[in-house]
């Protein structure tokens, strides 16, 4: 009779946030250590609560300074750029002069707007914003890239909004971003009813990303984990007395082992409440190792982005934690008719997924698509007799898989997957009077619903459904319905403000 297993999920340490102000060379410095609890330098140790926040954070083991972001102070003038000079002047109904042609050399791909004499002498110049003042910038980091950035500028007449249209790699930010990455004009909002800008003119404007967001990695720590959102400056900084100074945000990374693993603990509803031989208790761990986390320029297309090794342990019911082989007329045991149960009753699975391509068509798309190659190693106990020890039968799976990640909200989404795999068998079992089954080919359809119960993306509840079919014979299949808890902790995050 099956025993009910109650899984108690323990939350790991909650993240802590503190910000320390340092006045130096016209810059304001803040330390981002965890959740958004900014503390000024003057009051850093003024209360017992603030003392505990700081001491607890710095007493944690294996912490390192990942790097720092720098943003301009409030009201800092930001230069506009244009890329296509011919198009810009055609919008202004002016002829393209030789003077402008000299500015379009390869080493001057983007031209500062105020450097063009034609614009300065144009009657239209007063209708074009020359510069605007910095207000704030928000960024979303995912797997080594800035996948979204939103900038707000203003002048006396209007607010201007810019955004990136393709991912920007944070890993080679210091070498390539200064001449390659620009924010595109999105829209503007008027402050005065008598001010009207020409949208065709404004759409040619760009802002150099490094002018409004600079990143300097610490030596040996040039890495950024996924799923983090920052707003610079935060709401807590807005009332600071030195808002006009350039600001530096230092990022603290916790590199303990449990902070770089994707861990899952779950059970199978069909294993608990029906006769399916599915794992009653399962624990799974996975880590991502990035190989080439760089997209093609001005696209969201990645290739060979990462490999993800994983391991899974399953605890089955005592009566079902093995596969029974039957003897033939000469006493040789085989299980060819039930070979699919090598996967269903496997108590140990390990392997890796090689991400071949990963892309989305445009930034506003709610889903990412990927193609990967899975490689798996299974260990399944085989019983060949009543008083005989179980044999650990080993199999190796390999194939191709496609996945779609679709998000309904930022904390609720659906992962869909399709997988084709073939299995070979490892080891020699003739001494155990066990015959290997014929080649196994399977197809699997997967669907996983996930939900973040709070504002921490590192922890989620999930429901995963999986159907596996033996396509080599077409006669066998099984279904899994798993629910449990997932916790992934990387860099200490800052809540979006």
Automatic annotation (TrEMBL):
It comes from the Bacteria. Residues 1-18 form the signal peptide. Keywords: Signal. This is Outer membrane protein beta-barrel domain-containing protein. It comes from Flavivirga aquimarina.
């Amino acid at each position: 009779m099956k025993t009910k297993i109650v899984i108690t999920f323990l939350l790991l340490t909650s993240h802590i946030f503190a910000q320390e102000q340092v006045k130096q060379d016209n810059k304001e410095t803040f330390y981002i250590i965890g959740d958004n609890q900014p503390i000024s330098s003057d009051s850093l140790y003024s209360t017992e609560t603030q003392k505990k926040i700081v001491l607890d954070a710095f007493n944690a083991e294996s912490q390192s300074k990942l790097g720092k972001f720098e943003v301009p102070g409030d009201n800092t003038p930001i230069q506009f750029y244009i890329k296509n000079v011919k198009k810009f002047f055609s919008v202004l109904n002016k002829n393209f002069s030789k003077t402008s042609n000299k500015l379009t050399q390869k080493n001057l791909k983007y031209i500062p707007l105020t450097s063009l004499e034609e614009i300065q002498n144009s009657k239209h110049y007063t209708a074009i914003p020359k510069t605007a003042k910095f207000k704030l910038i928000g960024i979303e980091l995912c797997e080594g890239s800035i996948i979204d950035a939103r900038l707000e500028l203003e002048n006396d007449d209007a607010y201007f909004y810019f955004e990136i249209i393709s991912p920007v790699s944070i890993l080679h930010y210091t070498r390539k971003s200064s001449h390659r990455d620009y924010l595109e004009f999105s829209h503007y909002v008027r402050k005065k009813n008598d001010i009207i800008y020409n949208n065709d003119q404004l759409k040619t404007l760009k802002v150099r990303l490094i002018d409004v967001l600079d990143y300097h990695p610490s030596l040996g720590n040039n890495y950024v984990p996924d799923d983090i959102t920052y707003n610079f400056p935060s709401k807590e900084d807005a009332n600071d007395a030195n808002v006009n100074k350039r600001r530096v945000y230092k990022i603290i990374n916790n590199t303990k082992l449990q902070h770089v693993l994707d861990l899952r603990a779950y059970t199978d509803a069909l294993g608990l409440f029906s006769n399916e031989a599915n794992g009653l208790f399962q624990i799974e761990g996975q880590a991502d190792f990035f190989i080439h986390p760089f997209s093609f320029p001005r696209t969201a297309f990645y290739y060979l982005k990462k490999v993800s090794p994983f391991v899974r342990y399953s605890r089955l019911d005592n009566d079902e934690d093995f596969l029974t082989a039957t003897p033939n007329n000469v006493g040789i045991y085989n299980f060819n008719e039930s070979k699919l149960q090598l996967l269903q009753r496997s108590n140990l699975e390990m392997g890796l997924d090689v991400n071949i391509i990963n892309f989305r068509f445009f930034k506003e798309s709610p889903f990412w698509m990927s193609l990967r190659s899975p490689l798996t190693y299974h260990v399944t106990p085989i019983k060949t007799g009543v008083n005989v020890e179980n044999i650990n039968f080993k199999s190796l799976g390999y194939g191709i898989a496609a996945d779609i990640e679709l998000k309904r909200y930022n904390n609720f989404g659906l992962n869909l997957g399709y997988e084709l795999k073939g299995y070979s068998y490892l080891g020699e079992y003739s001494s155990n009077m066990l015959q290997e089954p014929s080649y196994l080919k399977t197809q699997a359809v997967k669907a996983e619903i996930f939900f973040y119960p709070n504002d921490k993306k590192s922890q989620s509840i999930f429901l995963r459904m999986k159907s596996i079919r033996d396509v080599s014979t077409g006669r066998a299949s099984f279904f899994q319905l798993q629910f449990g808890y997932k916790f992934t902790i990387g860099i200490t995050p800052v809540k979006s403000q």
